[in-house]
Amino acid sequence: MGIRTPELLAKIDIPRQKLYYLEQKGFIKPSKTVIGEKEFREYSEEDVKKVEYIWKYLKKGFKYKVAYQKALEEMNNPQMSLIKTDKTPVIG
User: Fold this and answer.
1) Residue 66 has pLDDT above 70, yes or no
2) pTM for the whole structure
3) Tell me, what DSSP letter sits at residue 80?
């Protein structure tokens, strides 16, 4: 069982409209459950990780498509998150 939208929003602190935009673009695919008259989204562990990584790159100023690609790269290569790219090499 996945987590629902309110829990995901609280966990990652991403605006709801941005989360739904990721779904609209097909970057994530939450399952939908109907209870009575309401429909609830449930996000898998993989969706949660994708949202977490995509949001990290969006906050750094990347466009959605690039943020998604970088998120997939990082998910497929966990060692990437250990690499510090913001350091200037010291020569000498």
Assistant:
1) yes
2) 0.80
3) G
Please name the residue ranges forming H helices in the chain. 5-12, 16-24, 45-59, 64-76
Assigned token pair, 77: 């290569």
Domain residue ranges in the chain: 3-82
Quick check: 79 pLDDT over 80?
Answer: no
CATH topology of domain 3-82: Multidrug-efflux Transporter Regulator; Chain: A; Domain 2 (1.10.1660)
Cβ within 8 Å of residue 11, ≥6 positions away: 3, 48
| Long-range contacts, stretch 81-85, CB < 8 angstroms, 24+ apart | none
Contact residues for 47 (Cβ-Cβ < 8 A; gap 6+):
2, 28, 29, 30
| Measured distance CA(55)–CA(18) in Å, rounded | 9
Which amino acid appears at position 26 of this protein? G
